[in-house]
Amino acid sequence: MQHRPKAVPTQQVANERVIVTEWRFAPGAETGWHVHRHDYVVVPQTDGQLLLETAQGNRESQLHAGRSYAGLKGVEHNVVNATDHEVVFVEVEIL
């Protein structure tokens, strides 16, 4: 098992409709394994490359600042910064 630094979440908004969290990843940092309890939208603030570890295998995902993408409730993964610079995105969970 690899030891990686943890990504840093900062909750910006939490109400009856959404949870908005900024995630900051140092090089090599990870979220830790988690299951999404809500549908969500990710808004990258920086370019970068993420390693997505899943039970079905690993894959890489390219981030482009300002190019959003959506994910579904029930997704289980660990997200790792695969670049040599800080990666930042904002996650909006839809309640």
UniProtKB/TrEMBL annotation:
Organism from which the protein derives: Burkholderia contaminans
Positions of the Cupin type-2 domain: 22-92
InterPro entries: Cupin_2, RmlC-like_jellyroll, RmlC_Cupin_sf
Pfam family, one: Cupin_2
Organism classification: Bacteria, Pseudomonadati, Pseudomonadota, Betaproteobacteria, Burkholderiales
SUPFAM superfamilies cross-referenced by the UniProt entry: RmlC-like cupins
Superkingdom of this protein's organism: Bacteria
Name the UniProt record assigns to this protein: Cupin domain-containing protein
